[in-house]
Design a protein that fits this description.
Structural class: alpha/beta
Shape: globular
Largest sheet: 8 strands, mixed
CATH topology of the largest domain: Alkaline Phosphatase, subunit A
Helix content: 25-40%
Number of strands: 15
């Protein structure tokens, strides 16, 4: 049977009152009522980032994760040179050495041109919004992150409560010194802005290809994952209609709820969920199709960051729970039969 995996980015919250418990979601509720439901830990014990979670959900060992920088670089068609390192960057605003905004807009082209003339061995390539890729030529990947919201745990990037202060890069002396000098000189150009980074990497791992899958994507992380896994990438236009039309298995991540979770905006997160729910109505009519709806991590509006809480999951089209689930949310889905980790999702779906 054809399979559709829909990842609702950061949809889950914590506490008794969540975005999902408040949101009016008749289509998600219909699917849940006629599905297997439960909880999923994208990466158990880790408040993981989207790239790592999706990497695991798509059937890969998270130990093979090449780093956010490599994946997003692949996503924008940068050829990976194992002698260089690739980092995912944010532009950020600061005042008196304290970060006041870690998601600042990309500087204008004339400023970016000045920044990219600082060093012939370091280049910044803007992607979307506040995001960019830093390429450091002939460098070591044995360096620390400077993004205050993430810390490595067991080799995996783990979201933490950030201390909003500027952090220097440490580790390999030559590489860290080059990067710190580059960032210091960038700050002189941008005045009140800096660059923070995470997800350093330099190699593309050998991965099992998903040839019979299509991915609807537009963000560098999604595009990079799709390319690494050999998935056909389709543009995000008329998504639901195109999902219905294609005969291949489908994977899609929908970002909306995550954005408002990071902002701590409950009302807008609820509205984003309700907007998604309306789009799902056509999927309730599909036959001979397994639909899996879940999340890549929780982004509780209460915390304004990713957390390690489990996320709700439903699998429609292959039986339903004895305990009827009336609403798709963190608490009702807990009554269902499923208890999964992200790394086991693909193999579980294949057996249905």
């Amino acid at each position: 049977m054809r399979k559709i995996i829909i990842i609702l980015d950061g949809i889950a919250d914590c506490g008794k009152r969540t975005s999902l418990t408040i949101a009016k979601t008749p289509n998600l509720n219909y699917l849940a009522k006629n599905s297997l439901n439960g909880l999923m830990w994208p990466i158990k014990g880790i408040a993981s980032e989207s790239g790592e979670s999706q990497f695991a959900i798509l059937g890969n060992n998270v130990k093979d994760y090449p780093g956010r920088g490599v994946i997003e670089a692949v996503g924008i068609n940068i050829k990976i040179n194992p002698k260089d390192i690739y980092l995912r960057c944010n532009f950020a605003e600061f005042k008196d050495k304290k970060l006041i905004n870690v998601r600042s807009e990309i500087p204008k082209k004339e400023l970016m041109d000045k920044i990219n003339k600082i060093s012939s061995g370091i280049k910044i390539i803007p992607t979307i919004g506040y995001r960019a890729i830093m390429i450091v030529k002939e460098a070591s990947k044995n360096i620390t992150t400077t993004h205050p919201g993430y810390k490595m745990k067991n080799g995996i990037s783990n979201a933490i409560k950030p201390r909003l202060v500027k952090i220097k890069c440490y580790g390999d002396e030559e590489t860290s010194s080059r990067i710190n000098n580059f960032i210091s000189r960038t700050e002189k150009i941008l005045k009140n802005k800096t660059i923070i980074f995470r997800g350093v990497g330099n190699k593309i791992p050998k991965l099992k290809k998903l040839r019979n899958w299509v991915l609807f994507g537009e963000m560098p992380i999604e595009l990079g994952l799709g390319k690494l896994l050999g998935m056909k990438i389709l543009p995000r236009k008329n998504i639901i209609n195109n999902i219905i039309k294609t005969k291949k298995n489908v994977y899609i991540q929908i970002k909306g709820p995550d954005t408002y979770g990071h902002l701590g905006d409950l009302n807008k997160k609820v509205k984003a969920i309700e907007k998604i729910d309306k789009e799902l109505k056509k999927l309730t009519k599909l036959k001979n199709t397994i639909i899996c709806i879940t999340a890549d991590h929780a982004t509780p509006f209460q915390l304004k960051r990713h957390s390690k809480h489990p996320v709700p999951i439903l699998i429609y089209g292959k039986g339903k729970d004895k305990n009827v689930i009336e609403k798709f949310d963190e608490y009702n889905c807990r009554k269902g039969s499923l208890r999964l980790e992200g790394k086991n999702l693909m193999s579980f779906l294949e057996k249905l």
